[in-house]
């Protein structure tokens, strides 16, 4: 998911656990935990568990001889500060923090992603370098791929922040199914899927420039897994009364029909060479 294999072979075949630990999802998982657990009466637990995860991943990197990652270090600092703040502030401040911590965390992630690009070190690049020989680190395509993927993550965090703000400030309902869950989780899923898909596009582009006809992943490969999420969204809408019945049914029907139509279109479209 880091663009690590774009235009560059990997350094080996790490274990499944190693691949997980070497990906940016480890650095993002404490924030996901915070988003799931945040709420009235839960912020201490959310901050504590997120901090514990952050420390575990930092220690795991050091124990395996990996470099310290910007995201991992920020995780420890942010969640340690959050836990201390939660334990010290008065009930009024705590209630305010419980309301707005989702937006604060998402904006923090936007700043991390954008800031890392501004200093020419997109945060996914550090993870990608763990899996690619050093001689490939400065290839333009390798660098460009990580800028693109980091930019997509920044966009996902911004969408989540805006959705959360609308739910809290306008709807006055932080648990609204759409602004509090569907849109925010959907943005992360889109970023995850794009991060898995885009390196293949970059590899095909490099192969084409080198005179090798390597098929590029089709747009269907990106959209098909995303369309499948429409079914659980529709079910969730029906079960939790997230809107008119017809809307939930429409999501389910679309989630079944769109992947079928995409696969049919993919079979009738000649393979792209990138």
UniProtKB/TrEMBL annotation:
Keywords (A to Z) from UniProt: Membrane, Transmembrane, Transmembrane helix
Phylogenetic placement of the source organism: Bacteria, Bacillati, Actinomycetota, Actinomycetes, Pseudonocardiales
Organism annotation: Pseudonocardia yunnanensis
Descriptive protein name: Uncharacterized protein
Residue intervals passing through the bilayer: 42-63, 70-92, 104-123, 144-166, 178-198, 219-240, 246-262
